[in-house]
Amino acid sequence: MTGAALNVCLQYYEAEVAELVCACTAVVCCRCSPEQKAQIVNLLKRYKKPARVAAVGDGGNDVSMIQAAHAGIGIDANEGKQASLAADFSITQFHHISRLLLVHGRFCYKRSCALSQFVMHRGLIISIMQAIFSCVFYFASVSLYQGYFH
Questions:
Q1: Which ranges carry the P-type ATPase C-terminal domain (predicted)?
Q2: Distance CA 14, CA 73 (A)
Q3: Coil, helix or strand for 74?
Q4: How many CB atoms lie within 10 A of CB 54?
């Protein structure tokens, strides 16, 4: 799709383009203007809500796309350092992306699991303490944590 055709599609057929783009596992934008690349990223962010968008670029024309994404990955390549300076993550070669995604994806998963375990254990401890407090004071309708957890 040429840049002019993409511009018309984004202007008049945004929902159809969003449906097509969201159905893909990966979207490659080439021979587009920097604004169109950023529009595609914003389209993905708007229509595919729970997902996170990562944009990979290696030149100055990819800066707006990288900055529009949740995670911008810049490749320090022959085209200059503009993309790597504007990105959240900077790598030297394209094949380092798999390691970057696997390592950071694993760390994100582990942090999410630790947070969910903390929330569950905190709720369990608070409930047990309230139950013991109620038993000690003959099941009076008095809260142990007044004003904190309503």
A1: 85-148
A2: 26
A3: strand
A4: 19
- The residue whose two tokens read 């900077």 is 90
Number of residues assigned to the chain: 150
Q: Return d(Cα 96, Cα 106) in angstroms, integer.
A: 16
Residues 1 and 134: their CA atoms lie apart, in Å, by 69
CA 56 distance to own-chain centroid:
14
pTM for this predicted structure: 0.69
The pair of structure tokens assigned to 72 is 């911008």
pLDDT per residue over 30-74, tens digit each?
888 999 999 999 999 999 888 889 999 988 899 999 999 999 999
CA dist 72 and 3 (Å) reads 22
Residue 91 in tokens: 């790598």
Instruction: Give the residue from 21, 25, 97, 24 showing the smallest Cα distance to 58.
Output: 97
Query: Do 116 and 131 meet the contact criterion of CB atoms below 8 Å apart?
Result: no
Distance, in Å, from the CA atom of 1 to the CA atom of 49, rounded to the nearest integer, reads: 25
